[in-house]
Specification:
The complex is a heterodimer of chains A (120) and B (110).
Chain A: E1 3-7, E2 10-12, E3 18-25, E4 34-39, E5 45-51, E6 59-61, E7 69-74, E8 79-84, E9 93-100, E10 107-110, E11 114-118
Parallel strand pairs in A: 2-11
Antiparallel strand pairs in A: 1-3, 3-8, 4-5, 4-9, 5-6, 7-8, 9-10, 9-11
Chain B: E1 9-12, E2 18-23, E3 34-39, E4 46-49, E5 63-68, E6 71-76, E7 85-93, E8 98-101, E9 105-109
Parallel strand pairs in B: 1-9
Antiparallel strand pairs in B: 2-6, 3-4, 3-7, 5-6, 7-8, 7-9
Classes of the chains: A mainly beta (120), B mainly beta (110).
Chain lengths: 120, 110
């Protein structure tokens, strides 16, 4: 069965960096677009970033993280990453890894999330 | 960044039907595809509808999606207490090259 397991969250000071990982299994990772979606405490869903399947590797970002966050993937390890720099309190959220399906913007499988807290 | 517009809350009695609307623009709902998600407290979202009206395997046909112009609708029939949750719509915006989500709708089954 499909599994997405996020890791790398934690408490970081404003201005700091974190690298999130999402280990995928149960599907053909190289053929799947992968996304990061976040949810601040008590708030709604906010899409963060998308990386297309191998062979293209195009990347897309929400305006709120462009220039600070970078999504990447290692198809040999079935893992997608999110490098987060210049973190601020507004980045505090539960970060989900989500697998894309069919047309862009559809997410058929989600991980359980990893919590990022930006606080001094 | 702009979001898709959903009502904050809806409610209906068990066994009844409820609809949740999602309003966008010509560059997102009007041009691309809509998905719908259900989120129970403390859990990850679950895909209910993708590509406007397609249901993933395992999603009962009580859930249906439709789209007209720049708006989409999720309909749930035969409401059950287990349907109480937050529901989100989502769509790719072809002009901004981003995914947009609605603000979420809290469904209460009373």
């Amino acid at each position: 069965q499909v599994q997405l397991v996020e890791s790398g969250g934690g408490v970081v000071q404003p201005g700091g960096s974190l690298r999130l990982s999402c280990a995928a299994s149960g599907f053909t990772f190289i053929n799947s677009g992968m996304n990061w979606v976040r949810q601040a405490p008590g708030m709604g869903l906010e899409w963060v970033a998308f990386i297309r399947p191998d062979g293209n590797n195009d990347k897309y970002y929400a305006d709120s993280v462009k220039g600070r966050f970078a999504i990447s993937r290692d198809n040999s390890k079935n893992t997608v990453f999110l490098q987060m720099n210049s973190l601020s309190a507004e980045d505090t959220a539960l970060y989900y890894c989500a697998k894309g399906v069919s047309n862009w913007g559809n997410f058929d499988y989600w991980g359980q999330g990893t919590l990022v807290t930006v606080s001094s | 960044q702009s979001v898709l517009t959903q009502p904050p809350s809806v409610s209906a009695a068990p066994g009844q039907k409820v609809t949740i609307s999602c309003s966008g623009s010509s560059s997102n709902i009007g041009k691309t595809f809509v998905s719908w998600y259900k989120q129970l407290p403390g859990t990850a979202p679950e895909l209910l509808i993708y590509d406007n009206y397609e249901r993933p395997s395992g999603i009962p046909d009580r859930f249906s999606g439709s789209k007209s112009g720049t708006s989409a609708t999720l309909a749930i029939t035969g409401l059950q207490t287990g349907d109480e949750a937050d529901y989100y719509c989502g769509a790719w915006d072809s002009s901004l090259s981003v995914v947009l989500f609605g603000g979420g709708t809290k469904l209460t089954v009373v």
